[in-house]
């Protein structure tokens, strides 16, 4: 069977809400990643067959063929097409799948899978403005959907609380996980573990190269002092992912492109799985998607050297690890979205970038990435570092 290879994987450092990256147009954030992939690999930009870009909140500056605008803002020629996709938090992970499927099918040879999201400039849920601000329509949940599931809206926050209750996690367990995310991210930053994957974004003439969200002085007490999002619940802003501005991307190519362009791969795509389940609890699907991916690939969880499970909310990776029997020491080894931020549509390729670089830095072989997504969907990608 034809193979799909990753030649390089990069990301911007995360920017806090209204932080250093807030003054950068999201198209320019995405362009920084595209330009870095071209510069670092030496690929002729005209040889790129397509750009598949994930973005969740496609409104304002992230609307009107956003992926194509990212190409216009980059050094890629106008001849390179682009498309913008939305699979919620897994948008750019799905972009990897689409890119790999394109080169494996032989229809394309060089594809960039990327994601960009400025949550400062285009706030989450701002694409609901017609309903919420203009009073047009009733919103995304139609009367038939509401009747089918017995709800007025789907809520990721309620889903996170449901997972915590179902899997028996109290607030202390979630806060301890959040603290470990900050500790690991801080240690990775200080050790230079992110240096190979972060590309600079110029802000007021200075390069932004350090993730802004890490709390180097975090303690269990400071995390526990943050107000809960719901009375009687266990989820707070401190044990959930941070709002973040950022972009990321990977260059995916065929074996033919490796030879034609003299490229050296850093990873091979082993398995691509996407499943869907209960849209109400919503965020639990990575557990079952991972079961399917491992069965398809013929690999056991013990054969996977590192895992990246998006820290949308602390109960998600905790429930995942318990369900699949994962080793906590291999989970999000450089911290996760609780410390580093979750730039929605960019998180898929962001996690993949960190996963591949971490595997190579440790001399490890297999990595698994999974992401909970709106609507009860989950993507799983297994890669082999080369």
From TrEMBL:
It comes from Sphingomonas endophytica. It holds the Pfam family Thiolase_N. It is an enzyme of class 2 (transferase). This is Acetyl-CoA acetyltransferase. Its EC number is 2.3.1.9. Belongs to the thiolase-like superfamily. Thiolase family. Residues 5-255 form the Thiolase N-terminal domain. Residues 263-384 form the Thiolase C-terminal domain. Keywords: Acyltransferase, Transferase. GO terms for molecular function: acetyl-CoA C-acetyltransferase activity. It comes from the Bacteria. The active site is at 89 (acyl-thioester intermediate), 342 (proton acceptor), 372 (proton acceptor).
